Input
Amino acid sequence: MEAERSAIPESDPFALFDTWFAQARESEPNDSNAMALATATPEGAPSVRMVLLKGHGSDGFTFYTNAQSRKGEEIRANMQAALLFHWKSLRRQIRIEGPLAEVSSSEADDYFHSRARVSQIGSAASDQSRPLPDRQVYLDRVAALEDEYEGAEEIPRPPHWTGFTLTPERIEFWLDRPNRLHDRRLFTRDRGTGGWTNTLLYP
Output
């Protein structure tokens, strides 16, 4: 039997991510930058939710959040996380694991002020993840901030609204194949050299 080659090349994992991400932007109907973010408490209790990728490159993968939310508190207590991109239209997924670092205040300011004005106000009005007695309470807070900042050129970024960058130590590319004979390639960062090694994985 002729050997079958992997469809996932031995490549720079960031270049490969760029290729797959560009293809996902063409094929996914909604939020091709959506990714599952898994965090854990210092005791190891996990939680996961969807967030949006807002920057990526050789320095890592960046997202933004309220640092007083559940995920923000878990991140601050345990600066390790995992990401998962799943693009159903392409039958592909990418898993990424590594440590987190908070973005600078200027980076957080720049991204916050690039958002739609109503999104800025919504973030400033939200005590994310905390109990809300009635939805109208939140809407009233949004309306109050709209009145407060009416005519203002800029809405101040709340100090607890920030971003984090995950620097990958493991990146796994997964490709659906017929009969569940899937294709998987794992890239692992060499902590000594900063380079990458890779291997295929059994599906």
The chain has a mean pLDDT of 94. The first helix runs from residue 13 to 27.
